[in-house]
Write a structure and sequence with these properties.
The complex is a heterodimer.
Chain A (H helix, E strand, L loop, with lengths): L4 E8 L2 E8 L4 H9 L17 E4 L2 E4 L12 E3 L12 H8 L9 H14 L5 H7 L10 H19 L1
Parallel strand pairs in A: 1-5
Antiparallel strand pairs in A: 1-2, 3-4, 3-5
Chain B lengths: L20 H5 L15 E7 L5 E7 L1 H4 L4 E5 L1 H7 L4 E2 L6 E2 L5 E2 L5 E7 L2 H8 L3 E6 L6 H5 L29 E9 L2 H7 L2 E9 L11 E6 L4 E5 L4 H12 L6 E4 L16 H11 L3 E4 L2 H4 L4 E2 L1 E10 L5 E11 L7 H8 L11 E9 L6 E2 L6 H19 L3 H8 L18 H12 L8 E2 L2 E13 L6 E8 L4 E5 L8 H13 L7 E3 L17 H26 L10 H9 L5 E8 L20 E13 L5 E11 L6 H20 L5 E2 L2 E2 L18 E6 L22 H13 L10 H10 L8
Helix pairs in contact in B: 11-18, 14-15, 15-16
The chains are: A alpha+beta, B alpha+beta.
Chain lengths: 162, 763
């Protein structure tokens, strides 16, 4: 198997990094194999479940479908970059307080989608929440708790701003 | 006695946030999925392409030419390290790799090993396997007397006394026939005012944990460590030890968090395969299944249930006959237990004097079936609660009144003869009815969208008799560690068990450290299944904490402190050892009393230590032009005993009910000649945000299980029991058609509306 490699440079959770990636490698493989970041996980492998959600320049992508080489020159944020040291992001706090996860495998994806949702719509209503997060699946079905968590996160972020 | 100066109190009954919450929201919780070891090889499984056939030649020529392939392992290599490579909890029927026959499409035949998983995947596609195809059987009812035999001879494992009589039985697909007879059903049917008989079917579905099956083995040839996403580390240890002919203490099984389990990750899944592979290549081996291959691993039984009732003019059910065929697929897994342990509840939570049950575990040429959140109960409730409504409607009795009249109440014998205690069937039913405002006028909508409501109730016995052992370690600074084999797969067991320790030792639950399953360290536990952990492990943990408390009191006396002295624990150790040193180890073990059912009659005076109840009420609307069903309200009420952690209990009920909503409305494995044709989340639809009922209410009744730890019992499955029939009952209430097979798709409803010839709906 002839594998073509390319060196890419990007910002990962705020830090400038570079990596040599093969043309077939996806973003999850890049994060796991070269940076030991495991918060983005491959589950369905088809971009349908959202477990591998990563923000690239602030936009969510499915890390299992997104080629690693595409992040060249971008800024990548993973769940590991949400907290500031030991201080959790309001979205993380809200998910804990609302009990919005069980096994936790899908949680990083939901957290990042929620962050993107609240960046775009600081006060989402229930319909917006459901539609926005409909690309993320939770087999433990903590959906009602996630809706509560998103609302709670919205109010936490508003308090922080005011 | 413990490090805090103020008594925290009230640890049980408090909604403590999950102990691992921060790890889960920062992406740092450990899963086997993430784990990698130095020199580790990745395995890719080559799977059978035929449903039933003799395995002929396996041609590895082209595959071995792929650069980077380390080795390709087949049956010939396997039997050199594991001479008798058959495993299973009930039957030793499942080969680690196919030996002489393949019995379903997707059965493992060979494994390609490579450092790069992409290389292994590419080479796996180049392995050419020849089969001599045999006729196959797929339907569970046909399998009962089919000439096609999946296994030539039955091979019970010997662990269950009630399977011993099956040893060496030949030429049958019936892995177990459980029978129960109580009273005189034949006479009651002959004397009945009315007899009702219906047949209901459920489809094959699967667990779909978002962390698919994954296991790693490493060995030095003398000992073996297996890191696996398993709900049953103790079983994995003893089964791997048995396969290798090693003592248990040479096999170590470690389990971190699971990304969901739901009954799938029980017994042996990939563990025996990675263990054998690691021994063959003497390097660590990992197999992580992609989503598609979950569909070839374990499923939930499809079933056919023929139910017949004798009913008096007053609406009393005087006799019931239940015949259930469980489609177990190609290997028994825990299927025969499902047939028996759930089979005896087939008449439902009703007080019926004359009962006859036959429950058959069947082999077919489909992917194996096992436990899935309810252990057969949701399939049974689907039938008996649909049947309840059909009888009530035929007799012109309100469905709630019909249930009230026949309900099994405390102090009365269940079909096994066991007198029920602490079973809140009546309280659950009444609470659902009250929340539904059953007696209030109901808006039935207008054409073309009609509204209806339905109610259903199910119950389950605990899986008995099973053992749990726990250790509580108090360190010299007073901090406390719990060692137990219960696996936290999302149900919150770490937190609930820490609360039990905390309650006994009077410390905050948040300060208790829970050590995850590591069979070198944590003691035996039968498995995390069947809603058994809160009750069984809860007891063991409570006993261990009480043992530690007594030892601390003895230590206090030994160092000369008066009884009831409020000295911090660290002071006790300091006085005894003159420095921060030493431990107090508390030990607890638990197995509940149990009487096995009589082989011929199924009768037992103590069939279970506790009963679980789940009731559901549904309001929905049906679009009569499209068959589309929209659920407006779903109410789930359960008897869980006392809630150890009310917040997590509610999440469990809600999650279970929504999962069952998927099994009711969208999920179905589609097959063509035994080949599953929708093995992806694109084609197999699990519930998402847009599938939620508009309103979900989850409640527990006020309850106290007299023999439970702090009055608690199980909760993980109860939310699943009654969802499916409540929906079918509501659909009939709305539009007058009865769906008897799951799933209830818009197509199924539309076709039933067309078939009903009831032009009145539309005109």
């Amino acid at each position: 198997m002839h594998i073509r490699k390319k060196t890419i440079h990007f910002r990962l959770n705020g830090e400038l990094v570079s990596a040599e990636v093969a043309s077939h490698q996806n973003l999850v493989e890049l994060l796991q194999n070269l940076f030991d970041l495991f918060g983005a996980r491959e589950s369905c492998g088809q971009g349908l479940c959202g477990c591998c959600t990563v923000l690239v320049d602030g936009r969510s992508v499915s890390g299992c479908l997104y080629l690693a080489s595409f992040v060249d020159g971008t800024s990548v944020q993973t769940v590991e970059g949400l907290a500031d040291g030991q201080r959790l992001d309001p979205v993380q706090e809200a998910f804990i307080e609302a009990g919005a996860f069980q096994c936790g495998f899908c949680t990083p994806g939901f957290l990042l989608m929620t962050k993107q949702l609240l960046d775009a719509h600081p006060e989402p209503n229930e319909d917006q929440i459901c539609h926005y997060l409909s690309g993320n699946l939770c087999r433990c079905a903590s959906y009602p708790e996630i809706i509560r968590a998103v609302k709670l996160a919205a109010s936490k972020r508003e308090k922080l701003l005011s | 006695m413990m490090p805090t100066t103020t008594a925290p109190g009230g640890q049980v009954g408090r909604s403590v946030p999950r102990l691992e919450a921060v790890a889960k929201v920062t992406g740092r919780a450990e899963y086997v999925h993430h784990m990698r070891l130095p020199r580790m090889l990745m395995g890719k499984i080559v799977r059978s392409t035929v449903a039933h056939g003799r395995l002929k030649n396996i041609d590895l020529g082209e595959a071995l030419k792929v650069p980077g392939v380390h080795r390709i392992v087949t049956r010939d290599d396997l039997v050199k390290v594991v001479p008798h490579p058959y495993y299973g909890p009930a039957f030793h029927d499942q080969p680690i790799l196919a030996i002489d026959k393949v019995r379903y499409v997707g059965e493992p035949v060979a494994v390609v090993l490579a450092s790069d998983p992409h290389v292994a995947e590419q080479a796996a596609q180049l392995v050419v396997v020849d089969y001599e195809e045999l006729p196959a059987v797929f339907d569970e009812v046909e399998a009962a007397d089919s000439l096609v035999v999946v296994h030539e001879e039955l091979k019970p494992a010997g662990t269950f006394p009630d399977l011993k009589h099956l040893h060496g039985v030949r030429d049958t697909n019936i892995a177990l026939d459980f029978r129960l007879c109580r009273g005189n059903p034949d006479r009651a049917f002959a004397d009945a005012d009315y007899v009702f008989e219906h047949t209901f079917r459920t489809q094959q579905v699967l667990h779909v944990p978002l962390e698919p099956y994954v296991s790693i083995a490493e060995t030095n040839g003398l000992s073996m460590t297996i890191h696996t996403a398993s709900q049953s580390p103790s079983f994995v240890r003893l089964e791997i030890a048995r396969l290798l002919g090693w003592p248990e203490n040479r096999v170590r099984v470690q389990v971190p968090f699971l990304g969901g389990g739901f009954g799938g990750k029980l017994y042996i899944k990939l563990e025996a395969l990675v263990a054998a592979l690691a021994l063959i290549v003497m390097r660590p081996v990992k197999i992580a299944l992609p989503m598609e291959e979950q569909f070839y691993t374990l499923t939930k039984h499809a079933s056919t249930f023929r139910i017949k009732s004798a009913v008096g003019k007053d609406g009393r059910v005087t006799a019931r006959e239940c015949e259930i065929w469980w489609n177990g697929g190609a290997y028994a897994d825990i299927g025969p237990r499902v047939s028996q342990k759930s089979g005896f509840t087939a008449p439902g939570p009703y007080d019926i004097d004359n009962v006859k049950i036959a429950s058959y575990a069947l082999y077919t040429n489909l992917p194996p079936a096992g436990a899935l959140r309810g252990f057969g109960i949701p399939q049974l409730v689907w039938a008996y609660e649909s049947h309840s409504d059909l009888i009530a409607r035929a007799l012109g009795i309100d469905p709630l009144a019909f249930r009230r009249k026949n309900l099994l109440r405390n102090g009365r014998p269940q079909a096994t003869g066991t007198v029920v205690q602490d079973m809140g069937a009546d309280a659950c039913l009444e609470r659902v009815a009250a929340l539904m405002q059953w007696d209030a006028p109901f808006d039935r909508g207008a054409s073309p969208v009609r509204r209806g409501r339905g109610i259903a109730i199910g119950f389950k016995a605990s899986i008995s008799p099973t053992t749990s052992v726990a250790v509580v370690n108090v360190s010299a600074d007073g901090s406390c560690t719990l060692y137990c084999g219960t696996v936290d797969m999302g149900q919150g067991s770490d937190t609930a068990l820490a609360q039990i320790v905390a309650e006994v030792l009077n410390i905050p639950a948040e300060t208790v450290r829970v050590v995850h399953s590591d069979t070198d360290v944590t003691p035996y536990d039968m498995a995390t299944l069947g809603s058994r952990s809160t009750f069984h492990m809860g007891h063991a943990v409570k006993f261990a904490a009480e043992d530690a408390r007594q030892k601390l009191e003895a230590l206090a006396a030994e160092v000369g402190l008066p009884r009831g002295s409020n000295q911090p624990t660290r002071e006790l150790f300091m006085r005894k050892y003159k420095m921060q040193a030493g431990n107090i180890i508390g030990m607890g073990s638990f197995i509940p009393p149990y009487t096995p059912p009589d082989h011929d009659t199924g009768q037992s005076d103590n069939i279970t230590p506790f009963w679980m109840v789940g009731a559901t009420g549904v309001e929905l609307e049906v679009d009569t032009e499209t068959g589309h069903v929209r659920i407006l309200k779903m109410i789930n009420v359960a008897d869980v005993g006392r809630s150890i952690n009310p917040g997590i209990v509610e999440t469990q009920l809600s999650g279970a009910a929504i999962m069952q909503l998927g099994f009711t409305t969208t999920e179905k494995m589609q097959f063509e000649a035994g080949q599953v044709t929708n093995a992806s989340l694109a084609d197999y639809k699990i519930p998402g945000f847009l599938d939620l009922p508009a309103v979900i209410v989850n409640e527990v009744i006020d309850s106290h299980q007299h023999n439970g730890p702090f009055g608690a019992k199980g909760v993980g499955e109860s939310g699943t029991f009654a969802v499916s029939p409540a929906i079918a009952n509501a659909i009939e209430d709305a539009v007058g058609v009865r769906i008897t097979s799951l799933p209830i798709t818009p197509e199924a409803v539309y076709l039933a509306l067309r078939a009903s010839r009831s032009g009145a709906i539309e005109n």
